[in-house]
Structure formats: structure tokens, C-alpha cells
Amino acid sequence: MTQSDASRIGIASLVLVAGFLGSRALGVVRNMALAQTFGAGPELDAYFAAFRLPDTLFQLIVGSVLGSAFLPTFTRYFTTVSAEAAWRLASAALITFSGAGLLAAAAGYVAAPWLVPATVPGFAATQQHLAVELTQIMLLSTVAFCASGMVTGILNSRSHFLLPAIAPWLYNLCIIGAVLVFGPQSGVAAAAWGVAGGALLHLLVQLPGLGKIGMRWSMAGPTTPGVSGVLRLMGPRVIALGAAQINWLVLTLLGSSLASGSVTALNYGWALAMLPLGLFGMAPATAAFPALSAAAARADRATFSHTLSLGLRVMLFLAIPSSVGLALIGRPLIELLFQRGEFDAAATAVTATTLACFSAGLFAHVGQELASRASYALEDTRTPLVFALAGMAGNIALGSALAPSLGVAGLALGMSIATVAEALGLLLAVARRIPGWRWTPLATSIAVTTIATGVMAAAAWAALNTAERLLPHPLAQTLAAVLAGGSAYLGAAALLHSNELQVLLRRVRRS
């Protein structure tokens, strides 16, 4: 990997981290507004359950294309065919998959009265009816997100990350505004309309970026050269994402049969776990993907191997302590963010336990993000499919076994255990395809990071216990644990001569 490649990935990572940080922060504010207005009860459970069908349709149509099929194919066309052919492929993909989103949303609207109740059999009839209404409103977002998702893929493929990073901010701001302004009078339907409006803003803010990267529009359809290759690559990815959606459908189904508020606790716990996952997993993996795809297109396996290895080491250096730290500060953090209005101490306790169980698998989710993109860059979508199906089976089996005794926390713990096994298997499979891959640097890095994390956990636990006795406010407790734990971690990493710490410090100085 050249110095310019490293610099581009570093800058892109910083842009994406800033975007993810802003988006996740606004996501927390959004959930705070929802919790304060509606509490952890039947209405909010219905709202979160209503996300399943719109999100499933989006993931299967566009989510399957962006990460696995479009970007590697588009990059290869630019590298080995011509810019004109690549832009024609981009136009065809945008038109084709946006149209597919429109048709799928219309079909989902008609089928919602039958599909949605089947996913929440534990809900009362009135709650099921509300979930159907909310689903039909939020299906409007599927149409906008399918178009917006393709625009994001086109911009990212040309290393333009700013507008895609800003788009989620507007999405969350629209939901927040709808909840605070209209929620008290209109109920949770206001939040659903906020989702639809936010998805439209998500699309509109990105459209000017297509002109900035010089996209050449053309009326092209599914028969355009390259589209068949995208469809071929996305086939296994569709099944893999279908498995991921089945995971969440099963979790929602099981959660609907548990105590009231369980579905909300599941979604809030996951949303908080997504904060470090977005920062240390999705953002760096998204930034590295174009470089991995370009190296694969040039058959430059040395650069490919170095980019993947360094990316994994740095991401795990950040993710492993985050996994432990988030579990430690879960209770005061949730109390600080959500415990007000209709969200009481009992809801805080359940959500904190669920968050701790999700946090146990956070490092695996982060590793999986980059390992799967490495496989897609090699135009191999089948290997991630195999492990996604195995992970789905493990998640369902573990969640079903653990939920009766552990409640909603058992669902989260089952997902974490299954994800650890899935991520490890996928990384082993990808490494076998890379000549010259070396495990020693990664193993050494993980050992150093784990020792430093142990020091961090001891410091954070001591600070949190002291703060609970002397500083009753949850903000003070959270800050005390974060500052003590973070300082201990960085100090231990420096004493252990962590290479990843030095890499991060050099990137910060260059920026």
C-alpha cells in the first residue's frame, strides 16, 4: 500500500468517523426523544417491530448490491474497461434498483396486514394493528432509501464520502423533529412519518454529489453490460442479508412473547452497541473497501494483504476496549440518556443488561465488517454467505435456548456468541485466499490490546464504584469511568509499545 493510498484511507476514515459519530449521536438523541415521549411500552414496541419489513426490503434490494457487487464491479470497469462504460453501469444500477424498491414497497404495503402480525404473535390485537399501520407508513422510506443507497454506493466508489456521511444526520433530525413537535398529539405515527421524510432528505442531500464526481447520466436498464455481473455477485449476498434479517425477525418474534418493553430494550441496546461499531467497524471498513477493490482489480495481493491486516489490527485495537467499556458503563449511560418521562428505572435495568450482552460480541462485529468486505473485493460473495447462514442458525438456536431463562438479554447474548464464531470462520476462510498472509502480527496485536484492556477494565471499574458512592449523578459516573479507563488503556498500550497506537498517532498528526 503506497503512502498516498494510506493517506486517502486515513482521510476517508476521518470523514466517515465524523459522519458516523454525528449520526450515532443524533440517533441517541432520537431514541431519547422516543423514550421520553412514548416510554418502553406497547406503542414503542410496535414502532420498532414495524421497522422489520421496510428494512428487510431495503437490505435485500440495495444492501445486497452496495457492499458486495456494485463497488467491485464498478471499480473494475473504471480500471480495465473505460470511464464511459462505468458511468453507464452506474446509471443502469441506479435506475434498476430504485425501480425494484418502488415495486417491493408497493407489494409490502398490500401484504403488511398479513406479514406483520406473523412477526409479532405475542402482541395484542390492537398492538399488531398499530404495527401494521406504522409499517405501511415507513414503507415510503424504502423507496427513497433504495435510490439513496445506490447514490451512496456511486459516491463512495469514487472516494467521495462527505455527503453520504451527512445524509444520516438529516434523517435523524427529521425523526427527532417529528417526535418532539407532533408526537404528543399524533402518537407514535408521527415518528413513522418522520422516518419517511428523513429518508427523502437522505436522498436529496446526496444528489448534488453526483455532479461533483462527474457522473455521466444515461437511460440504461438491466441489459446494460456489467449489470448481469452485479446481479450474479449479489445473489449470494441477498441470501446472506436475508439470513441477517431473519435473525432480527426471530429476535423480534421471541421478544414479543417476553415482558412488555422487551422489543424496545433489544433495539435500544443494539443502538448503543452500534455507536462504537459504526465508528470503529463500519467507517474504517467502508473507507478501506475502495482500496481493497482496486488492489484486487490490479491483482496486487501484497497491498491487499497489508491493507487488510493493518485495518483489522487498528479496528480491534479500538473495538476490544470498547466492548468491555460499554458493558461497564451501560447502566449509568442508559440512565443518563433515557431514564426520564415514561422510561423508568426498570426499563433502564433491562436495557443495560441487554447492552452488556450485545457488547460481548462487538469486537467480532467489527472484524466481520472488514473481513466480509475483503471477500467482496475479491468478488467472492459465496464465502460470507456460508458463514452468514451458519451464524443465523447459531443465533436462532442460542437465542431460543437462552431467552426463557435470561429474557431479552439472552437474545442479545445468543447473537454475540454466534457472531464471534461467524467472524472467526470468515477471517480464516479469507486469509487462505491471500498469498503471504501472516497471522503473527495480528495475534501479537490482539494479545497486547487484550492486556491493555484488562488494565482499562480495572481502572474503569474502580472509578465507577468510587463515583457511585461520591457522585450520585449518572453523568459524573459515566465520565469518571470513561476518563479513568481511557487514560489507563492508552497508558498501558504505550508501555506495551502498541504498534497500532503509533499508527493512529501518526494519522492524527498528519491530519
Give the SSE map.
Elements: H1 3-38, H2 42-50, H3 52-80, H4 83-119, H5 125-157, H6 162-186, H7 189-204, H8 207-212, H9 227-256, H10 262-297, H11 301-328, H12 330-338, H13 345-359, H14 362-377, H15 382-406, H16 408-431, H17 440-470, H18 474-495, H19 499-510
Helix pairs in contact: 1-6, 1-10, 2-5, 2-10, 3-4, 3-5, 3-9, 3-10, 3-14, 4-5, 4-9, 5-7, 6-7, 9-15, 10-11, 10-13, 10-14, 10-16, 11-13, 11-14, 11-17, 11-19, 12-13, 12-18, 13-16, 14-16, 15-16, 17-18
Description:
This protein has 511 residues and is mainly α. 86% of the residues lie in helices and 0% in strands. The longest helix is centred in the first third of the chain and has 37 residues. It is globular, with a radius of gyration of 22 Å.
In short:
With about 500 residues, the protein is an all-alpha fold. The chain has 19 helices and no strands. Helix 4 (about 85-120) packs antiparallel against helix 5 (about 125-155), helix 10 (about 260-295) packs antiparallel against helix 11 and helix 12 (about 330-340) crosses helix 13 (about 345-360).
Question: Gap between N and C termini, in Å?
Answer: 19 Å
pLDDT < 50 runs, ≥5 residues: none
Q: How many beta strands in the DSSP annotation?
A: 0
How do the SSEs run, as a string of H and E? HHHHHHHHHHHHHHHHHHH
What count of helical segments does DSSP give?
19
Share of helix among residues?
over 70%
- Helix and strand composition category: mainly alpha
Q: Please tell me what the overall shape is.
A: globular
- Please give the largest β-sheet: none
* Content of β-strand: under 5%
Radius of gyration: 22 Å
User: Whole-number average pLDDT?
Assistant: 85
